[in-house]
From TrEMBL:
Protein name, entry field: MarR family transcriptional regulator
Source superkingdom: Bacteria
NCBIfam families in the record: SCO6745_fam_HTH
Signal peptide: none
Source organism (scientific name): Nocardia vinacea
A Pfam family that the UniProt record links to this protein: HTH_67
Gene3D superfamilies given in the database record: Winged helix-like DNA-binding domain superfamily/Winged helix DNA-binding domain (1.10.10.10)
């Protein structure tokens, strides 16, 4: 039987902080040491590397939620400094080092091998159709070392869900920048204050908000309408539904065990400021 959607969403909450250590200071510095100019060079080199030396237009399409032109500031420039294969290795080493640093003694705890194995079993079990970034990651070898294995599995699960989230956005006619506006509103802040889009030109961001207002999703004050809130909720529910196949390989008891074992690890990651 399918796992409860609440459990699938809980896995998202636990996997996210573990996977995203890849965007932390330790991993970023590994890229800067190899000639990357800034954080975003390392971000795009590492995250896009499983796609190979894909052009900016392809990376933009797969990543979905970056404003026009943002990817092209980094792709293909980074491939003149580092190959995708090198970027994969740098990202893996830096991310594992960051995770090990953040979780401290948990990195050598007896249960880490078990949680890494359970997570990896789920992470390599999902169908790849329609999941471009997940498929690229699936083509990579699964690391043997437990901490690295856990980060890799978390990344696979995160990007599998992310590919499904993009499909849910497309199905609801929500573009990438529009998705960030809805996320900002769901977090209780105005779009222009949200760190993922506050750098955009005011006129550009205002046009996006106006478009959502014209569709009845945003009100005159720039907040959610009932329809906007319901749309956001439907997208999140569909995203969880589309993420569920990754966990079908696990029994109910195994998924419960995975959640229980991940909780202290995710909490330890979140407790450490980068």
């Amino acid at each position: 039987m399918p796992h409860p959607q609440a459990k699938i969403h809980r896995m998202f909450e636990l996997v996210e902080p573990i996977a995203t250590v890849t965007f932390s200071k330790v991993a970023t510095e590994a890229f800067l040491a190899l000639g990357m100019r800034n954080y975003w060079d390392g971000y795009f080199a590492g995250r896009a590397a499983p796609l190979g030396p894909a052009p900016a237009a392809v990376v933009h399409a797969v990543f979905y939620n970056f404003a026009d032109g943002e990817v092209a500031r980094h792709i293909p420039w980074v491939w003149g400094k580092i190959t995708p294969q090198e970027a994969i290795a740098v990202r893996e080493r830096g991310s594992a080092a960051a995770l090990r640093q953040k979780i401290g003694k948990l990195a050598v705890s007896p249960g880490l091998v078990r949680v890494a194995d359970l997570a990896a079993r789920a992470a390599v079990s999902a169908p790849t159709e329609g999941r471009a970034l997940y498929a690229g990651l699936r083509a990579l070898d699964v690391p043997e070392e437990p901490v690295t294995r856990l980060w890799h599995a978390a990344t696979l699960l995160r990007e599998y869900r992310g590919d499904g989230h993009n499909a849910a956005l497309v199905a609801h006619g929500i573009g990438g920048t529009e998705a960030h506006v809805l996320m900002a509103l769901a977090l209780g802040m105005r779009a222009e204050k949200f760190d993922r889009i506050h750098h955009l030109p005011k006129e550009q961001l205002a046009a996006v908000v106006d478009g959502l207002r014209g569709r009845g999703l945003v009100d005159a004050a720039g907040g959610f309408t009932d329809a906007g809130r319901e749309t956001k909720q439907r997208i999140e529910a569909l995203t969880d539904e589309l993420a569920a196949p990754a966990y079908d390989v696990l029994s109910a008891d195994e998924l419960d065990e995975l959640v229980a074992r991940l909780e202290p690890i995710a909490a330890a990651v979140q407790a450490v400021d980068d």
